[in-house]
Design a protein that fits this description.
Elements: E1 6-14, E2 17-25, H1 29-34, E3 37-44, E4 56-57, E5 71-80, E6 86-90, H2 93-106
Antiparallel strand pairs: 1-2, 1-6, 2-3, 3-5, 4-5
Length: 110
Amino acid sequence: MPAPGDVILVDFPGVQGYKPRPSVVVSSDLYHTTRPDVTVGLCTTQLRSATGPTDYVLQDWSAAGLHVPTAYRCFFASVPVAEVLAFIGRLTDRDWAEVQARLRLAIAVA
């Protein structure tokens, strides 16, 4: 079962259909105990466009199993766990803390 902060490969829905993309698991372990899906945020290599307050350029992208510099974006999807294509790696504590900070900015929860 994917865990929060894991980097996984999923067929991510986008404007032009589905595309296999690395994504960061943002749903909680509690959520995973009762649901058959996982909620993820998008990863992109388009660093020049990742300039919004809810975007974050990963500092330790290589340690997370990614092959090129990558940014996290608060663009969400929920996919069935059975449709996870691959486990790529896990964000470092530093990058996961920064992604969580962007999640707090993006979602209206206290």
